[in-house]
Amino acid sequence: MIRPHSGPPPTSPAAALPGVRGAAPVLRLVPFAFARAFGRAPAGVWSAPYVLRLSGSPAGPGTAVALSWRVVIAAAPRADGMLRVGSIDRPDEGAEFDPAGDVGPVPDWIRPVLAGTTGAGGLDLLVHTDLPDSTGLSASVPLSCTAALIEAAFHDRAAGTGRRARLTDPPLGTVALSGRPGHVLVIEDAAGEPAHVPFDPDRLGLRFVLAVPRWADGDAASVDTAEHPAADPPARTSPPARNALAAGAIEARPLGAGGSTIAVVPGAALADVRRALVDTYTRAGEPAPRVLSASVGSACTRVA
After folding, report:
1. What is the predicted pLDDT for the residue at 190?
2. Quick one: CA torsion of 185, 193, 49, 274, rounded to 10 degrees?
3. pTM of this prediction?
4. Are the CB atoms for 119 and 162 separated by under 8 Å?
5. Taking CA 71 as the corner, what is the angle to CA 215 and CA 143, rounded to the nearest 5 degrees?
């Protein structure tokens, strides 16, 4: 666990973010929490998008899009080679280790951060994720991408003696690194660069809607939300997805093993689709799901 400390006065744009009027709340919160956790101001703040595969199998070609849900990491270099990682969302699960040595057991959510680094130099990192793990949209892609960019910003990769920098999912990681608002990306293969294809949901009045069940871990759901392979269109429906389509969504499917549903929804149908998703669960005796919405997002970038 990383203990809180009183942070020093701002000495960099990242450290000054908490006091910047008009900055997004999360961009003010993360550097403030970093200073409290590590006892010094961050040297930089990065933001990376969650990525949604729209078509194709996980191992093959298809299309994907960067979403406006984000992972934000505040960071500062260390001179001793150690990697300290904390999380606003998991305050009791921080870890400190030598990434160039025998790391040993670490929390699963930290492994993508480790995958994105080489051991080229020490870092203090504080993470915030917009979405909980149960949504079916993995934070591992934006976490590994951001860790790689942070290490490159503060340390010479050629000096690394640890593991080779890699992305937890190379095709989707490349989308996170090169995503562009108003575009989807066509993935040819794991090694190639994706091609940008114009697609502007905002101009078309479309939103990505995510319904996340609230049932407790270990409880059986009475709503059948099992995920089916994206390459098998007839099998890509579940009661929440079918009801979202009936209410006006132009695409809807199960997402992940946690029972979430993702839908692409015209603006005029947003209220009807939200109502249909909630009704699907409540009529089955389940708690109403969390219903979130997003647009197309920008690539992984340093924001301060």
Report:
1. 59
2. 20
3. 0.84
4. yes
5. 100
